[in-house]
Amino acid sequence: MFAHISPSPACPPSILGLTASHASFSSSEFNYRKGTEIYGEKEPAEYVYQVMSGAVRSYKLLSDGRRQIGAFHLVGDIFGLENNDIHRFTAEAVVDTTVRLIRRLSLERVAHTDPALARHLLVMTTSNLQHAEDHMLLLGRKTALERVAAFLLEMDRRTGVGVVALPMCRRDIADYLGLTLETVSRALSKLHACGALDFLGSNQREIVLVDRAQLAMLDT
Amino acid sequence: MFAHISPSPACPPSILGLTASHASFSSSEFNYRKGTEIYGEKEPAEYVYQVMSGAVRSYKLLSDGRRQIGAFHLVGDIFGLENNDIHRFTAEAVVDTTVRLIRRLSLERVAHTDPALARHLLVMTTSNLQHAEDHMLLLGRKTALERVAAFLLEMDRRTGVGVVALPMCRRDIADYLGLTLETVSRALSKLHACGALDFLGSNQREIVLVDRAQLAMLDT
DNA sequence: CGAGGGTTTGAAACCTCTCAAATGACGTGG
DNA sequence: CCACGTCATTTGAGAGGTTTCAAACCCTCG
Lengths: 220, 220
Description:
- Two copies of one chain form a homodimer.
- The first copy, chain A, has two domains: 3-139, Sandwich (Jelly Rolls); 143-218, Arc Repressor Mutant, subunit A (Orthogonal Bundle), CATH 1.10.10.10.
- Chain A has six helices and twelve strands.
- Chain A has helices at 104-113, 115-141, 144-159, 170-177, 181-194, 212-218; strands at 3-5, 27-32, 37-39, 47-53, 56-61, 67-73, 78-79, 90-93, 97-103, 163-164, 197-200, 207-210.
- In chain A, strands 1-2-9-4-7 form a five-stranded antiparallel sheet. The first copy, chain A, has a four-stranded antiparallel sheet with strand order 3-8-5-6. Chain A has a three-stranded antiparallel sheet with strand order 10-12-11.
- In chain A, α1 (104-113) crosses α2, α3 (144-159) packs across α5 (181-194) and α4 (170-177) packs across α5 (181-194).
- Chain A is elongated.
- At the A-B interface, β6 and α2 of A face β6 and α2 of B.
- Chain A binds a DNA duplex through residues 143-144, 169-171, 179-183, 185-186, 188-189, 202-205.
């Protein structure tokens, strides 16, 4: 793949909740071009990743190509954290993306002696679990319109203040929501017609203005 | 609810992977009648539970009553393990059920000083996460027939050797698989007609003989 | 034996998917 | 700077799988 080593720019102070007290972690950065694979399902999990810029999708495939995206990872998010040795998803860059990575083994080594880090790993795993539990309800029981509304609210909650930039294409959204890209497009059109959202910029992936109250009515 | 204290019968040696070295846990047993609630979503999580006999369903509800069952807990399973203070599901007895319970606080207290237990809690949370991840793929991308086949294979894997007793009704299965009870019934009929399974006993909930190879062909 | 709940099966409705075409956005090269 | 090719998105029309509504059947239990 097209992974290029890049010099470390100004570093955010914390990865994995680690502070200066954990200076022993070697963390380096990598760039992935749009669409390239970061790791594959069932590959050995050598690293844990944090998104520095860009966005990542984690997905599973059925043998005939049907795809279910389990999560999008946005700036600041940690992903690839496996407590087994093997990745359970494939991870790909949605757009050009920079990630920071830490060796899983070094993390585990420290976690063995540092209860605070061990607890932090549990907290992260729990929040992944919580997201998956909520997503099961969406996939099993919500309508197309409800799913798209919930997706926009999730992106809004995670990224900003009523203005959401969507880095992923309609097909990605569809595979996240268990729909087809056409159904997603129709739902967005309907929400647009209802005034629940507006598009800013010529490209409709760029920015979406969200009316939280109106979307929340669909989030039962 | 109709929870009755029962005298402790012969105790399996281990709960939560704890051995004799953790004698400090007070564990008592409770009985729940079929259909009664063990705990509700958003209730404070005071206990962690292990199924001694019977079966339990964990579910979330939408405001209009749509239900998504996230998991069935069978004999030996641990459930109600929250790392937050609040239950994220409602748990109900599918049939008359006996559970053993441990105070969450006492568990956390020990986990703070016992790395082995802390690691075990992470392992359990991870396996819950793994199940949820697989279930997202099922709910988002599999057909009705594939879902029912996957369900039977899961029950077979968890309970026995080609013979599965289904304690839950069609509606429970449907709410687990994101379908309606009629669709589940039709899928079972089709699998029966294909020879992929047989019913033993007059009541069709009781025992199902599974042809693993044939079901596995549907498990893409 | 009758009542009640669970299951099966049928028929029609409906939501989403599939297939298709038109439109729009963007980069490249003339 | 515009023409063109490519890719993403939108929109339409029809098909299809699942749901809804309904009725019959079965099993259990009082």
